[in-house]
Each structure stands twice: as structure tokens, then as C-alpha cells.
Design brief:
2 helices, binds zinc ion, alpha+beta, hypothetical protein PF0899 fold, three-stranded mixed beta sheet, 6 strands
């Protein structure tokens, strides 16, 4: 369950950010997670909520944006998929470039100062 470590990291980053701005409360957190990370969004939200319980981020919703994998095919152009691919999902040719899907970043933190 690596969601726990990730939830802890997110919390630690936003609490540092909140302290820097002398915020009274964290009201919303948005993160971007690539589908290749294999993170269960529900678990991440739940664990974050638990960990945040005793902090100023208590009750702040964690918004999770999923980043798809983008496959660039020489013939078909770009397409998005939810899993790693070794061939184009449309024409099955192996001549593709794969981008994205492995992000793990905090997009925004809303603070009440
Ligand atoms: Zn193709």
C-alpha cells in the first residue's frame, strides 16, 4: 500500500507551504497522478484524510487529477490510454512514442490565511 507514503509526502509538502504563508487552514489540495503509478485514488484520499486529521489540513478535500498515458503513433497521431503500451492501440504498429502517465505532483494548495 504505497498510497500511505505518498499521502504522507503530500501532507508534509502542503503543511510546509502553509507554514511559509502562515496560513490558518488548508482548504483544498489538488494533485496530479499518472495512471502508471498504479495509485488507487480512493485509498489515497482516505489515507490523506486520516493523516491530515490532527493538522490544519484537516477536512481539506484532496482532488486527484489523473494523467493518462499519451501514445504518439506515426500513422494515427496521439491517443490516450490508461495502461503502458508497446504498440499503437489503433493500428498495432510498434513504432510509437509514449509520454506522460508517470507524474506525481501537487498542482495547487488553497490556503486560508
Ligand atoms: Zn497507429
Amino acid at each position: 500500500m504505497h498510497e500511505l507514503g505518498i499521502a504522507g509526502e503530500i501532507l508534509s509538502v502542503i503543511l510546509t507551504e502553509a507554514a511559509r504563508h502562515e496560513a490558518k487552514k488548508v482548504t483544498e489540495v489538488t494533485v496530479r497522478v499518472g495512471v502508471l503509478r498504479g495509485i488507487v485514488t480512493e485509498n489515497l484520499r482516505f489515507l490523506f484524510g486520516n493523516l491530515a486529521g490532527d493538522t490544519i489540513a484537516s477536512g481539506a478535500p484532496l482532488v486527484v487529477e489523473e494523467e493518462p498515458v499519451v501514445i504518439e503513433c506515426g500513422k494515427c497521431g496521439e491517443s490516450e490510454t490508461a495502461a503502458m503500451a508497446w504498440e499503437c492501440p489503433s493500428c498495432k504498429c510498434p513504432d510509437i512514442a509514449v509520454r506522460g502517465g508517470d507524474s506525481l505532483s501537487i498542482v495547487s494548495v488553497e490556503l486560508d490565511v
